[in-house]
Specification:
The structure is a homotetramer.
Chain A (H helix, E strand, L loop, with lengths): L14 H10 L3 H8 L6 H12 L1 E2 L14 E3 L2 E3 L3 E3 L12 H11 L4 E3 L7 H8 L3 E5 L5 H13 L5 E4 L9 H5 L16 H5 L8 H9 L9 H7 L4 E6 L2 H9 L3 E4 L13 H12 L5 E4 L5 H9 L4 E4 L1 H32 L13 E2 L1
Amino acid sequence: MTPRTPADLNTAFNLADLERLGRAALDRNALEYYASGANDEHTLRENRAAFSRARLRPRVLVDVSSVNTGTSVLGLPLSSPIGIAPSAFHGLAHADAERATARAAYTRGSVMTLSTFSNTPIETVGAEAQGRFWFQLYLLRDRALSRSILDRAHAAGARALVFTVDAPFLGRREANERHRFALPAHLSAPNVASRDELAQVETDSGSQLANYFQNLVDKTFTWRDLDWLRGQTPLPIILKGILTAEDAHLAAEHGCHVWVSNHGGRQLDTAISSFEALPEIADAVAGRSEIYLDGGVTRGTDVLKAVALGARAVFLGRAALWGLAAAGEHGVERTLELLEDEFRLAMALCGATRIEDLTPALVRL
Amino acid sequence: MTPRTPADLNTAFNLADLERLGRAALDRNALEYYASGANDEHTLRENRAAFSRARLRPRVLVDVSSVNTGTSVLGLPLSSPIGIAPSAFHGLAHADAERATARAAYTRGSVMTLSTFSNTPIETVGAEAQGRFWFQLYLLRDRALSRSILDRAHAAGARALVFTVDAPFLGRREANERHRFALPAHLSAPNVASRDELAQVETDSGSQLANYFQNLVDKTFTWRDLDWLRGQTPLPIILKGILTAEDAHLAAEHGCHVWVSNHGGRQLDTAISSFEALPEIADAVAGRSEIYLDGGVTRGTDVLKAVALGARAVFLGRAALWGLAAAGEHGVERTLELLEDEFRLAMALCGATRIEDLTPALVRL
Amino acid sequence: MTPRTPADLNTAFNLADLERLGRAALDRNALEYYASGANDEHTLRENRAAFSRARLRPRVLVDVSSVNTGTSVLGLPLSSPIGIAPSAFHGLAHADAERATARAAYTRGSVMTLSTFSNTPIETVGAEAQGRFWFQLYLLRDRALSRSILDRAHAAGARALVFTVDAPFLGRREANERHRFALPAHLSAPNVASRDELAQVETDSGSQLANYFQNLVDKTFTWRDLDWLRGQTPLPIILKGILTAEDAHLAAEHGCHVWVSNHGGRQLDTAISSFEALPEIADAVAGRSEIYLDGGVTRGTDVLKAVALGARAVFLGRAALWGLAAAGEHGVERTLELLEDEFRLAMALCGATRIEDLTPALVRL
Amino acid sequence: MTPRTPADLNTAFNLADLERLGRAALDRNALEYYASGANDEHTLRENRAAFSRARLRPRVLVDVSSVNTGTSVLGLPLSSPIGIAPSAFHGLAHADAERATARAAYTRGSVMTLSTFSNTPIETVGAEAQGRFWFQLYLLRDRALSRSILDRAHAAGARALVFTVDAPFLGRREANERHRFALPAHLSAPNVASRDELAQVETDSGSQLANYFQNLVDKTFTWRDLDWLRGQTPLPIILKGILTAEDAHLAAEHGCHVWVSNHGGRQLDTAISSFEALPEIADAVAGRSEIYLDGGVTRGTDVLKAVALGARAVFLGRAALWGLAAAGEHGVERTLELLEDEFRLAMALCGATRIEDLTPALVRL
């Protein structure tokens, strides 16, 4: 896991190249943790295939000498509608862990979503991100601990709370179970547990993480409990893991924002792909809340299609991790830079100069 | 065919793993008998592909701390809507034959459907199943023999009669014909014939079984004869092999339950897959009868999709046999356990805590 | 090209097996002539794929103890709705050439369509077929020769005239052109030309046949000329090569029968598959004429699907030639027998006992 | 890059054969420049796949003894509706460069579209084409230079101005960037720059061409500027790169003709294929302008389908270059000849004798 020197990044012309570099930098334990999807990985594959199938209908003879990819999410200006999705344990990818990711997000004018299960304390990440971060929460059975985490996130400068709603249980990433994924001894999850607590998790079978998670997370939380959650934090709340018009409507009714996601194909296999779910969700939300999306975004045209169909921003999960594994902070920067460049060019070639120009008419599903 | 020790089961994380173990434990004669479908095996493949294509629309923010997979079939409580379909000759897979399968069904709170063509007498199986079994009938040309079999099944504790209606003739499993499938000398079909009778079957060409079956089974039976059948047994009657709304309606009109099946792709090749046939059948039955389904079920999400679209339970054919071949009784138990665990997790990740929560809105076809 | 002994046929369990045997018996010149389709062979492949995609909806609980596959075409009783399509040069496959094919058709109660370009004189074939043959006509620019051929066909006992309408020019079977297909010196086309005439065909480039055909065939013939043709022969006229509702309607208006065909994918590549064209043609004909179909039939379920959707009979092109190449007369018999057996079983498993029971409700497209 | 002798062309029976010969004659720099599409090359593949998927519905019993493939574009008679699309740098393929292409277009009664980025001056090409050429314009930021190019094109005998509207920026052909495509030292772009100017282009990263193009081309041009352009030249204006009904309507409103194109899949990846875009464009134009199409045409049936759905002519990009690379002028002639022959045969086999007979009823999408 020696970090690659930035020089290697010159051989990366797209995110597939960065994925290759990132995979090569990881050992099996880490690679399987990042790469695997649930069960037969149908949804993992469909997330990308659904984007590829959609056809663009580009417009011509527009003055595209100046293309502005800038947008904002919940009032935070972004250089482009591309953020970083939460993922656990960046320390598996690089010694700088979440600090590197946060610095890259700040440098690129993006936003990082910090996972509850980071290897770096919230405060450290908050200092690096300088306001360009959201905090992802798994609601813990220990509500006092949950509240303290929320307080820390707010104090550290998080701009929003991303509340994950699709993981009362962890999906079965069979590769992880087969090879008994475990967090290496030098890493911990300082937001929620000491290293000693982690070491006590029984691993008679399957993945250490799955067993640990099973005990930690609250499975009772419902729409009615959202009022309680809102009372714990002044941050806007985003519900991450929405895949239906019905739930998107409920989210908007409860004053929450909507993050379309199937958890990168890691939870419920054969769940609908994020991109296929987006149109009915955009219809249901009808402008009441902001909509985000993750899952399968690897090309600038994917970003464009998602935004055209109603997403305010897309978020990178594995793509950011491949960059991080390849070259730390610079690798994540390069990931964001390549995708933003592709997105800007795609806008120009579609005859769009501002985010507002991206409308459903650009896409034939 | 030395049975594998239960230790091997620890390497099985899903039904595909068990299939691998089971196949490895079988000789060619037995493997081809279990594995083959009719002709070009289009329907065999489509049974599974149809499930994979269907997309789930999971709901979130439901209290899933307690998920109850329990249901009942014809009043018999089941730990989950997963039973064992009838298949002939379990002795090909394991020395304990149908006794092992029956014990596993009992242990797991499931239900086994015993084939007319078992290698174990009805009474022996009935004793092991302790009420957790149904009896599958091929109506024989010898009606007196048919009646005696029905009487024995009832006396042995069978809870229902599963009347197979899709096999007046056997489909052509060409691998079996090519290699002249024959029942090994140490096995018999004690419910219908002595070993001597079996030995007398001519096998000049093709499969011994097909020739034998050809002479044994009644091909004249029609809807009008159902009244006669009902007079022979007090058991509820399930018609197994229904693939159309028309026949499902007739079944309900005749007071029978409906088992959607294409015989595991072994009868009429290019027949519609069970899962694709289910929606029109659920519409036609309209709650008048119970509906079951077999064909292609290998994942918990398959179970969930079938139940969501109207099946009261699904039944495992080959999947149970791979478990039986891999490790006898424990192998079948493990098959049921793995699938039930996957189904429970799929329910939780769909926001469903009871069987009643599984509705068509969860599935996008 | 030593004919295989009939013993080999015991290893053939389906038409794919016979194809394997037949291909092995042919040299490249003959194999490419039979096997090739036009250009990229899209239509050649689609002819078969279209059948495979169609799903059957079998009915159950019908008395199928007696299944009658018998039907008739233009009053000629057939043991099943399976005939032999015209194809040129059976002498490439077997020394007995069209005599073998005719004898097999007679023996099996089928009907053979004799090609204008046979290697055997009409009269010889007529004697072997004993009334079980139709004659296929390419209208020649030499109308006197055409008339004399028609007279000979009628005198030889042909029951119908199959007038090929899709080949004013030959399609480009590129394999034939690449390797300069030529009729071997020991074969001739006695119905239309002497061996000397054939030998004079220039073959500077491409296929000898294509060059020859180019000069021989009348390209001016239109719907208006059908009256002339009807005046030349008392035989009923079947138009072979219809692929649209529009032309099927015109055929019926002109008192002709309709043979749905794309010439086995040998003429216009990417032309619609025969099976996909059938429904609109059956609608357009609306019972006024008989409808036949060739193209891609290799399974009994293919026969059933075509008949269910409106074909009175299907015809075998390459399939018969593989049988002929494999074992002469017995090979063709075996082809017909295997397919008829499959068709009978498919009927029984669909709950159909007579041809009249085969209706569109059995097929989901 | 030794040009092949015309003898080699005898082994080419279709455009795929010519492609093989042409590819073999090129070095990597040139091959990647011609062959590559943007990014993942989805659109590059779809251009061809969309043609293959469309099914033909051929008509029969038409007098096809005389088939006339002749048509005209903007009043210029063509032997068939097949022209040559603009592509840069024919000198990469053959020492005779655009002179060879122009001579072939003239000889075959076709029309060549000369690229702004030719390796041969406009006047030289004009002399060879003898009126059978159109001129393709990239509008340059240097409007004086643009005007001078337009004047030269008109003076050289160009019959129309093909104004490329889909390339304000170059798409990312990643193979070119990866291997740093550069124009060899012996070639220049005499219409727009001296060799010295080209040599000064920085190539720190990526493709020399992309960097050069970036600075040269005007990105501000809009529909409103078309009036200015019309004032600069008496030639009819064709807008090349239209993919939507909306833009096709605008083109017709502005008195321009419409060239349906996605730049051979080289600009915006996952843009709709040309053939799939054609129907809505033909509807929108409604006869007000002529419609042309490029992208994926490799078979006579492709030409026929495009014309049937509303294209007045199709244009060959890579296909002409493969012929040029294979054998210079004769190679391009052979490309045009093979495709015209296939198109004529396809017309005959569809029952069409004149271009006017090609209507949408011939195609099932």
